[in-house]
Every structure is written in structure tokens, then in C-alpha cells.
Amino acid sequence: HRLERMSPVIRRAEPDDYPRVIAVVDEWWGGRQMAASLPKLFFVHFRDTSFVAEDGAALAGFLCGFRSQTYADEAYIHFVGVDPARRGDGLGRALYERFFAAVSPRTVVRAVTSPVNERSVAFHRALGFAVERIDEDYDGAGEARVLLVRQL
Fold this sequence. Notes:
The protein is of the alpha+beta class. Helix content is 25%, strand content 32%. It contains four helices and seven strands, in the order βααβββαβαββ. It has helices at 18-28, 41-45, 91-103, 118-126; strands spanning 9-12, 50-55, 58-67, 74-82, 108-113, 130-135, 145-151. β4, α3 and β5 (108-113) form a beta-alpha-beta unit. The protein is globular.
């Protein structure tokens, strides 16, 4: 059974958060090289819709997203990470809920994940996302992605 912990504090991301987030991304993804997928611009230009979660001074998780500039009713979640030791305690859901509130009155939220990341697909489904489709060449030839959508 899980140890009792303080609930992490979720706040808007700031540029100074980037170094400590990027320092754990590859480790949190089990050694997969993910850092290049998370540029600093989210911590500079999308602070109203990007968040960090802290448990005391420790980074517990983060979410980077934005309001679509093309579609007035849509928002997009680009990258989310939760410390592996914190997974399963509701922090991912809390980060998503914070994002949903921040993008209101947008009514559609989109996200993309890899088909091999079955845990991510299951997590999104549990949050009310539907699989819109699987695009076999979404990020280039042979780079399949699961396109997820949730109506708020």
C-alpha cells in the first residue's frame, strides 16, 4: 500500500522550471530519449496552460499544453510527466483537471500518444478521452500516433 504523502501543489510553469523538468524526462520515460520533444518554449510562451506539481521542493509532475490558435474551441496537451513513484495516486488526473479549467471555455481537448504506450492510451480513456484514430505516419513515415479527443 502507498505511503501517505502531502498532496502536491500544482502551479503555473515558469521558465526557471525547465532545467529541472528536462533533467528527469528521459529517466521518467524509462530511458527513452524524450527530452527533444519538450522545448523550453512551453515554459516561456504557454505558462497559462502549462503546470508543474511540487511535493515540497521535489518535482512530482508537469503538464505542457496550449489553446489552439487555429481552432477557437480546441486545446492541446503536448507533454505530461509524473514521477514514476507518484503514478497511480491521482496526480496525472489533477494536472489534466487543472488544464481543463485553464482552457475553459474551450470544449475540445486533444492529445497524441504512441500506439506502443498502452498505459498512456488507457490513462486517457479513463479520463474520458476517445481514440479518434490511429495515424500510421502522423510524425513522418512510420511514426504512428494515437489521436485522442475529449469533449469538455
